[in-house]
Amino acid sequence: MAAASSKLPEGRPGGLPEGRYGRSRTADEAADRKLKIIGAVLGVLLLGMVGWFGYDYIDGTKVSGEVIKFDVVSDHAVEAHLEVRKDSDARGYCTLRSQAESGAEVGRADFRFDQRTDRIDQTVTLRTTGKATNVELLGCHSD
Q: Is the pTM of this model over 0.85?
């Protein structure tokens, strides 16, 4: 038995037994690993770009508005209390629309604001073609 234990394995003369301590990497495995690393780096860069553009879009919005309340004053007019928040040097407009009970649009108008303040709080009158039941702010945009 002592003679059998001193004999080297036949797989590799003078070396380690094959498959015993892991296998050596082939060229395909090395290329796969490089591609995985490159893909991960590109994925992180893409995620970073999407995050940056999203932040810039949200932070870059210079104008926002809100309809605080509205009052139907007649069959052809609605008064809306509009509050606009913006950069003090920004100029732009807000678009309001009004709908009848059936859901049909009976009024739409853009209201400009050029004041050099960061907050505008005013009541605007929206003319309608029929009796309105609501006022909706469609959005505010800077020039």
A: no
